[in-house]
Amino acid sequence: MIWNPWHGCHKKSAGCVNCYMFRRDALYNKDSNVISKTNDFNLGIRKYKNGKYYIPSGDIVYVCMTSDFFIPEADNWRADIWQMIKTRRDVHFYVITKRIERFLDCIPSDWQDGYDNVTICTTCENQEMADARLPIFLKLPIKHKEVICEPILSNINLDNYLKTDLIDKVTCGGESGDNARLCDYNWILNIRNSCQKYHVKFYFKQTGANFLKDNKIYKIPRGKQLLQANKANINIT
Q1: Which helix (H) or strand (E) holds 201?
Q2: ∠133-140-99 over CA atoms, to 5°?
Q3: What is the pTM of this model?
Q4: Domain map of the chain by residue range?
């Protein structure tokens, strides 16, 4: 597994962390069970010869997209990344994790109630994971909190969490890949309705490869999954 803190920078959308990392590693003949840094580890503060940053001011950076920012194997490297994030206060960083229980052990000493330029997103693919992770998530000192239900694998009731007014946005999406599990459009709509009820932003990111709608399963190629989700026109901004 490549622990690349800057993968997915320059306003690219977040994807399914677990599925995506294995596909990306496989493309480059990388063993996903081996944790390693990339040559772009310092990309967040790297500059051109003219003094301008590689990552422009105002960009959105999705941190460590092909892995998980809070994996224990990266504990010795994480402080350097936090320092770069502090240096680049002109860039907004999204950290997506399924290891939210490790959060307090992985933040810098000056975190307090969070950095203005950092959004922490926790994932929950089904009700069991939502009920395990979100109670922890809501209690943590974080200024910007988002939930990602991608790949969504069952119906999820988020009402008890959204009504706290502590979650800024929910992103939903189906699973991609040759062995993708089913995404039921009703699951997406149910979460969307909850977001609408509690005035939370909602983003339907992608349909996934196997998409159930109106009792019919659609096989959707990867290149059209984001497009079809966008055509649904159900996002809440």
Answers
A1: strand 201-206
A2: 40
A3: 0.87
A4: 1-42+52-122, 124-237
